[in-house]
Design goal:
By secondary structure, the protein is an alpha/beta fold. It is built from 3 helices and 8 strands; from the N terminus they run E-E-E-H-E-E-H-E-H-E-E. Helix 1 packs across helix 3. The chain is globular.
Length: 147
């Protein structure tokens, strides 16, 4: 399972012109399930990102987690993270999970995040979303977890 974390001052996601998810300070997390991923892999990824120390402490050093700073999570499904651009000019998405598996794993990831963290907002799986963010730093970190 893959995620692209972006430390943000604010972020939102719109579908059909309506804001469906919005946070202030926190993490915008683009999430991609790949073939062979399981709920256990999703749980491992969530545990890591909740504890990842990428927020500044009183000295300005990246020493605090999203949980430490009380930041929000905006979780957005993003199958294009699995793009393979090695051959030709059109990306291949063959490593992305099948849509039904991706939906199930994204729903699991969101449900577990909601149990573990007080501020969780989401996008809408398979929707045409417009994501807006103010990247803080900028800090952008790719993550991949496997079984």
């Amino acid at each position: 399972m893959m995620a692209l974390l972006q430390r943000v001052s604010e972020a939102s996601v719109r579908v059909d012109g309506e804001v469906i998810g919005q946070i202030g300070k926190g993490l915008l997390v683009l999430v991609c399930a790949e073939k062979g991923d399981t709920e256990a892999v999703a749980d491992k990824l969530l545990t890591k990102l909740l504890k990842l120390r990428i927020f500044g402490d009183e000295s300005g050093k990246m020493n605090r987690s999203v949980q430490d700073v009380g930041g929000g999570l905006l979780l957005v499904s993003q199958f294009t993270l699995a793009a393979d651009v090695a051959g030709g000019n059109r990306p291949s998405f063959t490593q992305a999970a099948a849509p039904e598996d991706g939906r199930r794993l994204y729903a699991h990831f969101v449900a577990q995040a909601q149990k573990a963290h007080p501020v969780v907002q989401t996008g809408r799986f398979a929707a045409d979303m417009k994501v807006a963010l103010v990247n803080d730093g900028p800090v952008t970190i790719p993550m991949r977890m496997t079984a």
